[in-house]
Design brief:
The protein is mainly α. The chain has helices spanning 34-40, 42-67, 74-86, 96-126, 136-167, 181-189, 192-219, 228-254. The protein has one domain (34-123, 144-254): Fumarate reductase/succinate dehydrogenase, transmembrane subunit (3 helical TM bundles of succinate and fumarate reductases). The termini are far apart.
C-alpha cells in the first residue's frame, strides 16, 4: 500500500503563498555614502533640522544685537556694517569672510527647509490608513506645533525675500544707498506698508522660534522630563526677546523716535554735522 509523505520544512521546501494584498518587504536602498544614507532617514533629517536650527538661531540673535545700534546713531550702525565687510581686518581680502558666513547660512537655510519637507513626507506616509477616524482633539494636540511651524516657516521665507530686496539688494527701496543701513532702514520703515510687513514677519519669526527652540533638543535626542520646564522657559525667553526686539524697529520709526540723519551723504560712515545730528524728518 502506497504511503503519502509530507515534505520536510526547511531548506528546499516550497515557501508558503503570500496572502493577497500584502506587499513584500524589500530591503532599503543602501547605496551612497554613509552620510547620505543617514540623511535619508528620519533620524538624520531631525539631526539636520536641529543643527541648522542652532546655526540660524545664532544668526538671528546676532543680527538683532547688531541692528540695535540703530538706536545709538547713524555712525554707529554704519560703522558696524562696514566692520562686517572688513572682518577680519587685513588677514583676508574684503568681504571674503563675510561671504563665507553667508554661504554657511544659505546652506543651513536650504537644508533646514529640505529636511523639514522630507520629514513632512515621511510622517504622511507613515500615518496609518485609519487615522481619519482619530479624535479631532488628538489630531490638534499632536499636529498643532508642526502645522504652525510649516505656516510660519513659509511666512518667514517670504519675509526674508522681501527683507533682502529691501535692505540688501535695494530693488524694493527707492532711497537705497549702499553702505548706509541706518537711513535705508528708516526710509523703508517710514512706509506704513513696509512697517506692517516687518511686524508680521517678526511675529511669524517669534512663533517659529518658540516651537523650534522647544523641539530642538528633542530633534537632537537631548530630552529628559526633568528639564522640560527649562526647555520651555528657554523657548519662551528666546522667542520673546527676538519678537520684542525686532518689533522695536518699525514701532520706533513710525512713532518718529528714530528719524533720518543727513541722508545721501558720503561716505555713509562719516558722522553727521552737528546741525543735523538730531535727525531729519521727511
Amino acid at each position: 500500500m502506497a504511503t503519502t509523505t509530507t515534505p520536510p520544512t526547511g531548506a528546499g521546501s516550497t515557501p508558503p503563498e503570500r496572502k493577497p494584498g500584502v506587499a513584500p518587504i524589500r530591503p532599503r536602498n543602501s547605496s551612497g555614502p554613509l552620510i547620505v544614507r543617514f540623511y535619508r532617514s528620519a533620524v538624520g533629517k531631525k539631526w539636520v533640522m536641529g543643527i541648522t536650527g542652532v546655526i540660524l538661531m545664532g544668526f538671528v540673535f546676532a543680527h538683532l544685537v547688531g541692528n540695535l545700534k540703530l538706536f545709538l546713531s547713524k555712525e554707529e550702525i554704519n560703522l558696524y556694517g562696514e566692520a562686517l565687510r572688513n572682518m577680519p581686518g587685513n588677514l583676508l581680502p574684503r568681504t571674503v569672510l563675510l561671504w563665507g558666513i553667508r554661504i554657511v547660512l544659505i546652506l543651513a537655510f536650504v537644508f533646514h527647509i529640505h529636511s523639514a519637507a522630507g520629514l513632512t513626507i515621511i510622517n504622511r506616509r507613515a500615518r496609518p490608513k485609519g487615522s481619519q477616524y482619530q479624535s479631532k482633539r488628538d489630531y490638534v494636540a499632536a499636529d498643532y506645533a508642526s502645522r504652525t511651524m510649516r505656516f510660519t516657516g513659509i511666512i518667514v521665507l517670504l519675509f526674508l525675500i522681501f527683507h533682502l530686496m529691501d535692505l540688501t539688494w535695494g530693488n524694493a527701496n527707492s532711497q537705497f544707498l549702499r553702505g548706509d543701513p541706518y537711513n535705508n532702514l528708516v526710509y523703508s520703515l517710514q512706509r506704513p506698508g513696509a512697517a506692517i510687513v516687518y511686524a508680521i514677519g517678526s511675529i511669524a519669526l517669534g512663533i517659529h522660534l518658540y516651537h523650534g527652540s522647544w523641539s530642538l533638543f528633542q530633534s537632537l535626542g537631548l530630552t529628559n522630563p526633568r528639564y522640560n520646564s527649562l526647555r520651555r522657559r528657554f523657548a519662551q525667553v528666546f522667542a520673546g526677546v527676538m519678537l520684542l526686539g525686532n518689533l522695536t524697529f518699525p514701532v520706533a520709526v513710525q512713532l518718529h523716535l528714530v528719524t533720518l540723519q543727513c541722508p545721501h551723504t558720503k561716505p555713509p560712515t562719516a558722522a553727521c554735522p552737528s546741525s543735523s545730528s538730531s535727525g531729519t524728518k521727511s
